[in-house]
Each structure stands twice: as structure tokens, then as C-alpha cells.
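quick one: magnesium ion bound model?
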Amino acid sequence: MQAGDPAGMYTRLLWPALGLTFCAGLYRLKWRVWESQVRITMARLVMKFGGTSVADLDRIRNVARHVKREVDAGNDVAVVVSAMAGRTDELVRWCREAAMLHDAREYDAVVASGEQVTAGLLALVLEGLGVNARSWQGWQLPILTDDAHASARILDINGAELIKRFKEHRQVAVIAGFQGIHQATGRLTTLGRGGSDTSAVAIAAAIKADRCDIYTDVDGVYTSDPRVVPKARRLDKIAFEEMLEFASLGAKVMQVRSVELGMVHNVRIFVRSSFEKPEDIDPRAQPKGTLICDEADIVEQQVVTGIAFSKDEAQISIRRVQDKPGVAAAIFGPLADDNINVDMIVQNVSADGATTDLTFTVPAADYERARNTIAKAKAAIGYDRLDGATDVAKVSVIGIGMRSHAGVAAMAFKALSERNINIRAITTSEIKFSVLIDAAYTELAVRTLHSLYGLDKA
Ligand code: ASP
Ligand code: MG
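yep, here:
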């Protein structure tokens, strides 16, 4: 073949051209396979909506559009709903009015009904939007619990039927939160106030969901309460342990048990807002909110993550208690028997060496009961005087980074003293410390500490 020979040139060009076309075809084919894989490998989600998010039919329609968005994106969805806002309170009131000392089994029968209504309504609205959906009550799955009526614990959930329906019919499960069934007696149970968070996390664990989205009236977990600290920031991530402290210390985002359960089963919990317009959210993009996750998943760990506070505290001081073995047991035994939760305990030696002062805190609601319990045990304890105060607040500084940093608490004590805030009691644990102060100084103390640890937003 000679250079410049036209036939030879064509053959020389033909082969590469054919090759290119072939490669392009192969590439397109690969792209399609990849695309369809993306569609097949969708996520399995639990979407939980609290009372304010399902407060009326309009809000329920809004929830349905959130659900439809995720279904249209190819996700398997189990929804968990609370009762309409205020409904459970009303049901509890009715029980009290019906019988002051009501049977907890009947209380459960009454208060569980709020969730039955919202689950059914949401399933109806979803069907209207062309989404295949079915409602489920606790006994139907079933969600098995122990028999501690009004504060039952989940023992087991059968997720098999839900998974089967995802696979065969792409059916959305709409599950009534807050309720379960005690197997041996066949009675309905409820999980304690705020329990639908726990239902959601337990279901996420049972169906091995990729994520448990908690839709609520805030768009995530903040470094502190934004109503008190205007400079509070939303956290992108928070570790289970930190969230547990937040939840136990009065940040009312989630029921404490739900966070415990999430930690045990390593369920990725995502707190986000239900008030964002469903259509404004791209289901494939990273949503706005706070991920509660394993601490190993948090790359940039700050020393302090947030400041929590609670005004629902009361202080009891027992003066001139005999300083002898068995006294602590004589005090805290009866309190435990009466189901009173003691939080901070401080004991100091008084001047004479033979007696001591002992201070502790209880929930404000239990203050009078706790005083009575101590007064009744006076002979066994042996003390001079009982003092107390209810105008106190507990301010807590939380952060996993405290494990590896010294002097974090000392900074706070100095900053508070500079503001003339007196500390009545202190407790510390590995990842938090709390101070008890006069309630009047709560806001000042919280803001001071929020700035001190560099949490203020720019
Ligand atoms: N409806 C129940 C309550 O108000 C459960 C929940 O909302 O999580 O406590
Ligand atoms: Mg709630």
C-alpha cells in the first residue's frame, strides 16, 4: 500500500472509526447499567413525623408529599407517626378525669388511640396521591413490649412482613408510633411520652434501614437552645453519647430511650425539619439537618459540642447528718423506693467532724414528695434540718472531646465567677459537667459558656 493511495487511506481510517463507535456504544451501555443500578440500589428509610408535623389534615398532606418524594426517588419507606399535637395530652386528661387512680392498662388503651388516627389518615392521603400505602398498629406487626404499661420497653419487632411488601408491592408502611403489645396478655401498651421516637428507631433497626429520619419542628440539633442563645448553631453531626446527654439534660428533641436504642443498634438518626417544602428538597442531595451517629464517624471533633440547661430541678439539703456508715443508704434507699430520681449529690464535712451536710437534686415535680420521703426516714437517717430550693437551674457542658482535654471545667468556673454567678453544686462525668445555679442566672450562664467554648456562630 502506498501513501496517498485513497483506498488505502479509507481503510486506515475505517478501523479506528469503527473502534470509536464501538467504544462509545459500550460506554453508553455501561452508563445505562450504572444508572439502573443507582435506581435499584435505593435506600431503605424510616421517616418519623411528630405531633406538630401531623397536627391537622393540611399538615398530614404535607407529610404525604415528603413521603412521596422519597418513594418516587426509589426508596423503600416505613413512616412512623405521632398523634396530632395536643391529642395525647387531651387523652391523658380524660383518663385522669375518668378515674384519678386509673388502671395503667386502660390508660394505654385510651392514649394509644391518637396514633391510630394519624396512621390511618396518612395512609388514606398517600393512597390519594397514588402511593401504595398501608397503616399498621403496634399489635399488627407486632411490636412486642414488656408489660410496664405507660412506659413499656420494646422487646422485639417483626419487620419481615414490611420488607416483603417493600419488595413485592413497593408498599409504604405507615406505623402508629408510641404503641406495642404485651404478648402474654395480648394487651396494648404505650412506650412513655415522646415514645414514637423510640418506635421509629426500633423499626429502623428491625428492617435494617439505612437511615432513620426524625422530621420535627426544628431543622436539627443546636449547640444550645436558640431561644435562649441567639448565636446557637446547628450541628452537622453529634455522637450518640453526646446526644444522650443532651436528651437527658432537657433538650427536648428526642426521647432518651430512642437515642439509647440508636446507639445500641448503630442506627443513623437524622434530625430534620418537616416544615421545609417537600418539593424544595432534592432527595439525592445531602439534606439539611443533624446526623446522630457513632463518634468514629465524626472527623472534626470539638472539645465542647453544646450547652444544655434545665430549670426543672430542685435542691434538697440535709443539714448535720450523722457522719457514719449507712447514712447514704438510709437517704437514697427510700428515695429510690419511691421512684424519685436523684441527680447531683454533694456531701461536705461540717465543722464539728461528727456530722455532715448533704445536698442533692431531684426533678422539680418530685420536690415535695422527696421532702416527705426524707422526713419520714428522719429517725433512720438522723439529721438536724431539711432545707430546699426550687428556683435553681442546672447548666451542663457536653463534649466527647473532654475525655482527652484537661481544664475544660476550670475555665467555666472562672468565667461564671467573673459574672458573679454562684455555683451551688457540681457534678462531672467523662463527657460532661453540670453546675447548679440560681435559676435567675440561667440565660446569662448559658450564653457565657456558649461564647467561652467558641460555639457562637460567626
Ligand atoms: N403521642 C405521644 C406523646 O405525645 C408519643 C409521641 O408523640 O412521641 O407523648
Ligand atoms: Mg416528640
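The pocket of aspartic acid (ligand 1) is lined by residues 50-51, 82-83, 88, 114, 177-178, 193-197 (CB under 6 Å).
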